[in-house]
Write a structure and sequence with these properties.
By secondary structure, this protein is of the alpha+beta class. The protein is built from 4 helices and 8 strands; from the N terminus they run H-H-E-E-E-E-E-E-E-E-H-H. The strands form 2 sheets. The protein has a 4-stranded antiparallel sheet with strand order 1-8-3-6.
């Protein structure tokens, strides 16, 4: 965990992060104290499709590719590239389903990590902050679902 001596850049990063838009600076500090940071090198795998998920990752710097195994070819297909200021794995701190894609570093990447156990502890000890986080995650998942639905509509022929 990052502890009490949180870097100002970390607090600034999360204050401007869309998932945290309803959370004030003091509340961000509470959440950030329960995070860790990691660095990935280009090509490193953060996690694989079907792995157990119990962390959400916030991209401080760098790029991550979202890869999904093709049912047809069996090869990984890049579905998206994620950049600084985006997150991945939000569903894993809410449900117990396996990861839905593989995440690979496209470049050197620095991430902040919030584990499911830390999230659960925040919900228990700081329920008002936990509720704000849940609302932020819900907004993000809803936005992602709307975007996916719109893209999917471009590939589905109209019903006659």
């Amino acid at each position: 965990m990052l502890g009490n001596n949180l870097p100002k850049e970390m607090i600034d990063f999360f204050i401007n992060f869309p998932l945290f838009e309803q959370i004030n600076a003091e509340e961000v500090k509470v959440v950030a104290r329960h995070m860790e940071s990691i660095d990935l090198n280009e090509g490193d795998i953060l996690f694989r499709e079907s792995d157990k998920g119990n962390y959400v990752f916030f991209i401080k710097e760098g790029h991550l590719d979202v890869l999904k195994k093709s049912e047809v070819s069996g090869e990984n297909v890049t579905l998206a590239t994620l950049y600084e200021g985006q997150s991945i794995g939000e569903m894993s701190i809410i449900d117990d389903f396996p990861r839905s894609a593989t995440i690979q570093a496209r470049s050197h990447t620095k991430l902040y990590i919030l584990s499911k156990s830390a999230f659960d502890m925040i919900l228990s000890k700081h329920p008002k902050i936990g509720i704000k986080l849940l609302k932020g995650i819900s907004r993000l998942l809803s936005k992602n679902l709307r975007e996916t639905s719109s893209r999917l509509a471009d590939y589905i022929p109209p019903l006659s």
